[in-house]
Amino acid sequence: MSGSISQLSEASFAEQVNxxxxxxxxxxxxxxxxxxxxxxxxxxxIATEQSGSLRIAKVNVDENPGLAREFGVQSIPTMILxxxxxxVHKIVGAKGKEAILADLSPHL
Amino acid sequence: xxxxxxxxSDKSSVRNVIIIGSGPAGLTAAIYSARANLEPLLxxxxxxxxxDQPGGQLMLTTEVENFPGFPEGIMGPELxxxxxxxxxxxxxxxxxxxxxxVDLRNRPFKVWIGNTSAEPTxxxxxxxxxxxxxSLMLGLESEKRLLGHGLSTCATCDGFFFRDQDIAVxxxxxxxxxxxxxxxxxxxxxxxxxxxxELRASKIMQDRxxxxxxIKFMWNTVVEDILGKNSVEGLAVRxxxxxxxxxxGFTGVxxxxxxxxxxxxxxxxxxxxxxxxxxxxxxSSKTNIEGVFAAGDVQDDYYRQAITAAxxxxxxxLDAERFLEDQGH
Lengths: 108, 329
Known about the structure:
CATH topology of the largest domain in chain B: FAD/NAD(P)-binding domain
Distance between the termini of chain B: 28 Å
Shape of chain B: elongated
Mean pLDDT of chain A: 92
Strand content of chain A: 25-35%
Low-confidence stretches of chain A: none
CATH class of the largest domain in chain B: Alpha Beta
Radius of gyration of chain A: 12 Å
CATH architecture of chain A: 3-Layer(aba) Sandwich
Order of helices and strands of chain B: EHEEEHEEEEEHEHEHEHEEEEEEEH
Number of domains of chain B: 2
Number of domains of chain A: 1
CATH architecture of the largest domain in chain B: 3-Layer(bba) Sandwich
Distance between the termini of chain A: 19 Å
Strand content of chain B: 15-25%
Largest sheet of chain B: 7 strands, mixed
Mean pLDDT of chain B: 93
CATH superfamily of chain A: Glutaredoxin
Low-confidence stretches of chain B: none
Radius of gyration of chain B: 21 Å
Shape of chain A: globular
Order of helices and strands of chain A: EHEHEHEEH
Oligomer: heterodimer
CATH topology of chain A: Glutaredoxin
CATH class of chain A: Alpha Beta
Number of helices of chain B: 7
């Protein structure tokens, strides 16, 4: 599992995020979103480098509009960091790797 | 970062050409200079959700219908992914970072990434500036609070979230009308708020907008404030003719009021027009500094098309190649 990014669905979200022993960064994305594609390789790098201290998962908003609504996502990419099932940080909009890591580091 | 910084005396680490910016101009310059064996370094910028990002303005568009070679049209991000793939195929080195400072006084030119008080990160015999232009915002305090919460700079990213809602597009040019047209796929109504009494957009886009039953217009109107605590609830607008101020309910606002050239890095070193665009000499890509060339929207305040940017990127690569030859490189 180390460094891999899982795709979450409405059915698997609670189990995967709430019961994770590590913080989970959930990336809300869609196929038609240019900036989402730009950050995809960055998130893969972070998933590999932070393996063990952070998990990264993705929610396709086309397939899971209910999850987007539930977490108030009105812009993608939005990345939400969950710790023990609670929201601890929200990043709205694409950013570079250093900036994403700087946002996450206080919570890891 | 420091391990990559170079000493100015280390001649072997001087790049032939560094291209700053990765829209159609920068990537075309990369394709041409890579094929000329100049081993270009392309510094593509950092991801963001406005137009100042790798791939440039087309990363925020949907269907591009006027780029030759794609009779059925092509999605903007896909077109830019193709440009990038073609540039890397011929050996362009691409760095996903933002340039923080340049020193163009002497050759080799100095380029910094990150800490500007350290030694320069890269040295180059020639530089192609293709940093493009970035979207203007309204400059309201409420924009910071509501960005991503009903206020968007990217219709293609966020239109989806405004299904069956009443939303507004601010602006009257091609990009405003394109965004409005795209947003009608989702929204119940899209109101174009424009400060003038007619659109600046091209004839074909104007006709499409006027024919679309979901598009409404508020002419001679400016936005004074975006309202809403946690998400957009409406706009405070003022009619410029009657001075009447009203509050209109919208749950989404998309801003497309134009662009400004990304030339802050070069201010004081390269000659700029009053409007901030770089000045190039005649039909060439030459700036006021020998060895520094400019291409794309950063030097074009008139045509501003993907195809004209690509064409000028080619010009800049050929000018740089000729310059390096004359210098004996």
